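Quick illustration, no need to memorize.
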Amino acid sequence: MNDFSRTYSGAGSLDMSVDAGLRSFMLGVYNKMGLGLLLSAAIAYAVGTFPPLTNLVQSQPIYSIIMWGPLVLLIGSMFFMRNPSPTGSAILYWAIVVLIGASLSFWVMLASNNATVQTATGGSLSVDFGTIAQAFVITAGSFLALSVFGYTTKRNLMPMQNFLFMAVFGALALGLLNAFFFQSGMLELLLQFAVLLLMAGVVAWQTQALKVTYYQIAGDQRSMAVMTNMGALNLYIAFVNMFQIILSLLGSRE
């Protein structure tokens, strides 16, 4: 029985060889994710510091599209992209990168204007560019460690998938309820730490999942192109979520 089969039959550990093809595939995923982060940073800085773009992003319906567009695209892709093509998965990835990049301009605006804002639960939030850089370094270091763990561990992380999926949506739902109804600062803080832990799990699990999937689809160029896009998307979203939570914690003035 091969490693891929053992993974999905509940094996407690994995022992897959590392070859040049796998390294090339993983490098392609990380390169695409890195380009996504660079594009997001460029868009965030441009929107956050150039008033005409700032005003455009803050106008309706553009603001609502930017805020809710990534979630709508992700949920929609589950129903309408059952068998995604390389082109379709690439469009999905770059569309989400652009929208999230525009939403990240919020932090740039705070830093460039030396502003303090109130959170939905009544807390104060203020950051500068030094805080943003610090949050990025912490996130990048944590992401690297988690991804290396996911890449090298022989422990089977695949059973985490369903738990992570349901827990993320549960935390999202609870976060929305807290923002509109409960407005509890303590619950907000607990949710931030919970989502941070969940995203850490996503990074490790997704890294291993990419290795497992590579051995299933190696040689199928179409499937590998799709998985490069979707793997980069999953890792990119986890990184951005970790970054924003760490930045929020560093910028909290409570």
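Confidence is low (pLDDT under 50) at residues 1-11.
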